[in-house]
Amino acid sequence: MKKKVKEYMLITIGIILVGAGVYYFLVPNNLAAGGVSGLAIVINKFIPSIPVGLLMLFMNIILFIIAFIVIGSNFGAKTIYSSLGLSGVIWFFERFYPVKSPVTDDMLLNLIFGILIGGIGMGIVFNQNASTGGTDIIAKIINKFFHIDIGKSLLLSDFLITLAAGFTFGFKVGMYALLGVIINGFVIDEVIQGVTICKQVTIISEKGEEIKDYIMHELKRGVTLYEAKGAYTMEKKEVLMTIISRREFIRLREYIKDVDNRAFISVNNVHEVLGEGFKGIDEF
């Protein structure tokens, strides 16, 4: 129960960031950078009496109904909460904290900050194994009927929305919107990798037994032992390998420096670890 509460709290923080990025930076500049939010910005141009948040809510409900009919019930509660919650957040901003004018007069600055804030929020949502629906659903429908890969389908749906933005708001705005789609993908990837990244540490030391005990008893992490032979000395050496968090690596490095400052340490970034002591495989 505690874990579920934490997940939904993080999702809520994520959709608030996405909503703020869209409403305060993208909407005032008509930057329809893909997604249901982008489509809502385009439609709002022609039907200004309907707020962007309400348009997103209607479209997400329609998309979910279509998805359940066409694809099946492959959408979890967290995704439904995220997509409808995002629509609600933007409606809340429109209702109680309406934007009067763009944050700055520089469209590029608005695009960059809107995408950065929104991308961080999307990364947080995706890290909780949820999504904000929208074009994800459109992409799956395109994949089902036209057999185009999900990734290409997602890019296609976002591209069509930015194309619509170009026709509606002008070629320059459309190009900025397309740039936003590209940047958004990179930001989300970096946030996801940055949160889940761990350190794979390989150690060769004369104090291997002490280091092994420290990792197992102080850091509470597992250690794998290998036997290796040095090509120059032909001596047999015991090699320790462990996967730990970035914070734990700092502690381990300081400990090794104290017990054996001649130890050999090799460190690699690992972008995702599943299994005992980390995120369980059954969480996906």
UniProtKB/TrEMBL annotation:
The chain crosses the membrane at residues 7-25, 54-73, 108-126, 159-183. Pfam families: DUF2179 (PF10035), YitT_membrane (PF02588). Keywords: Cell membrane, Membrane, Transmembrane, Transmembrane helix. It is a multi-pass membrane protein. GO terms for cellular component: plasma membrane. The keyword Membrane applies. CDD domains: YitT_C. It is found in: Cell membrane. Residues 221-275 form the DUF2179 domain. PANTHER family: UPF0750 MEMBRANE PROTEIN YITE, UPF0750 MEMBRANE PROTEIN YITT-RELATED. This is Uncharacterized membrane-anchored protein YitT, contains DUF161 and DUF2179 domains. It comes from Caloramator quimbayensis. The lineage of its organism: Bacteria, Bacillati, Bacillota, Clostridia, Eubacteriales.
